[in-house]
């Protein structure tokens, strides 16, 4: 299944991929060579740590490469008065009598602790395309759901500040 990424997502991932391949990989390779010279590899913690860092870098490179290669470009086609990708949305949770602001983002940029929710999450799915005043029911599971009201929508663009996971 292809991943739906914004042009900004792909650009950020490509920059990280280039950095990891061009700059970080030679540094890690040099560190492995340097620590290998310390002697007995079975008791050489520095060598093991260098190899772990090198393997983690290779794993991230494979992940980024697959994500970029298997992606489709996701464009925001929402109207000016509808919730779209990267918009700030003020929500009223009637059950809790609480107001919260969230930003609907692509799956690789979500961070609920920072108020960035995935467009594929239960809340993100029901918010896209909604307008101010709409009340929607968010179905979390077969046994639990809650209602929210869209209080305001602030149209924003992806500024690239949200990191790619």
From TrEMBL:
Q: Give the Transcription elongation factor GreA/GreB C-terminal domain ranges.
A: 80-154
Q: Which UniProt keywords apply?
A: Coiled coil, DNA-binding, Elongation factor, Protein biosynthesis, Transcription, Transcription regulation
Q: Which InterPro entries match?
A: GreA/GreB_C_sf (IPR036953), Tscrpt_elong_fac_GreA/B (IPR028624), Tscrpt_elong_fac_GreA/B_C (IPR001437), Tscrpt_elong_fac_GreA/B_fam (IPR023459), Tscrpt_elong_fac_GreA/B_N (IPR022691), Tscrpt_elong_fac_GreA/B_N_sf (IPR036805)
* Domain Transcription elongation factor GreA/GreB N-terminal as annotated: residue spans: 5-73
Q: Which GO terms describe its biological process?
A: DNA-templated transcription elongation; regulation of DNA-templated transcription elongation
Tell me yes or no: is S-adenosyl-L-methionine among this UniProt entry's keywords: no
Annotated membrane-spanning segments are: none
- Signal peptide coordinates: none
Pfam families named among the record's database cross-references:
GreA_GreB (PF01272), GreA_GreB_N (PF03449)
* GO-annotated molecular function: DNA binding; RNA polymerase binding; translation elongation factor activity
User: Could you say which protein family the record assigns here?
Assistant: Belongs to the GreA/GreB family.
According to its UniProt entry, the function of this protein is described as: Necessary for efficient RNA polymerase transcription elongation past template-encoded arresting sites. The arresting sites in DNA have the property of trapping a certain fraction of elongating RNA polymerases that pass through, resulting in locked ternary complexes. Cleavage of the nascent transcript by cleavage factors such as GreA or GreB allows the resumption of elongation from the new 3'terminus. GreA releases sequences of 2 to 3 nucleotides.
Q: Which PANTHER family match?
A: TRANSCRIPTION ELONGATION FACTOR GREA
What name does this protein carry? Transcription elongation factor GreA
Its lineage opens with: Bacteria, Bacillati, Bacillota, Clostridia, Eubacteriales
